[in-house]
Amino acid sequence: MVSAGYDARVETRELRYFVAVAEELHFGRAAQRLAMAQPPLSRAIQQLERRLGVVLLQRTTRAIALTEAGSVLLREARAALDAVEAAERRTRRAASDRPGVVLATKAGASSELLAKLLDAYAAEPGAVPVEVVLCGPGEQERLLRDGRADVAILHRPFDTTAGFDTEDLYTEPQIVVLPAGHLLADRPHISMDEVATLTDLPQPRWPRRDGTYPDGPGPQIRDHTQLTQLIALGRTCAVVPESVRTHLRDEHATVPVPDAPAVTTVIAWPPHSRSKPVADLVRTATRL
């Protein structure tokens, strides 16, 4: 229990220390990452635990692990640090001599929509320059959360929209992309279970948020250009939104996957945004 009158407010510096330790699960590596000595880092974490009145880390002679309270703080600390970084970046951008909007979108996705949106917005009275940041899978969400982007094009269910204001733009079915000439290329449709059991075309492995890849026989994929080339070479296949067809070549074949979840493209922005250019851009997108 925290005693009455005791100051339990947590400093940003302490959150950064804790996140480093919680992600590394090793005080030595965390200290190296923070460019500081280990003893003061250990003392800072102990002080944080005393201040909150909870145990954040279970320590043994060989390893440390997060407690339930530690897991909660890690999740909340990441969000809080992202919010601080976002405030800093957006404040600097607001003071810039060159006002504009930064839009993040996944490379190779929603290209036709993006082109129409940029053209339509540029024709609006008072339009400002739009900087387009092309991202790898899942990166646009992170850029929007930490302030490097003002607005983003996201795709449910692949991207998380929790904590953002959003407007749905369109929903589409999914297809599987196969190498041209594959024995299933002429099928009228295929199920998700059949795709999962294609041993000659193991599923691609996309990076997690921390940059690591899940285990599996399929190739590690960084972007859609790499994915389409490996499909053409007969090394993998992929279930993707139907609109990806416009980027494929003769080396690819597509088959509908009726039981795959539909993909909804949304435009997202921070709920506290009061930017008129962001509001105008969102209004233009929904009108399209």
From TrEMBL:
Pfam families, A to Z: HTH_1, LysR_substrate
InterPro entries: LysR_HTH_N, LysR_subst-bd, WH-like_DNA-bd_sf, WH_DNA-bd_sf
Domain HTH lysR-type: 10-67
Organism of this sequence: Nocardia aurantia
PANTHER family named in the record: HCA OPERON TRANSCRIPTIONAL ACTIVATOR HCAR (PTHR30346:SF0), TRANSCRIPTIONAL DUAL REGULATOR HCAR-RELATED (PTHR30346)
MF annotations from Gene Ontology: DNA binding; DNA-binding transcription factor activity
Family assignment from sequence similarity: Belongs to the LysR transcriptional regulatory family.
Cellular component terms per the entry's GO annotation: protein-DNA complex
Renumbered residue ranges of the record's region Disordered: 201-220
Gene: hcaR_3
Name this polypeptide is given: Hca operon transcriptional activator HcaR
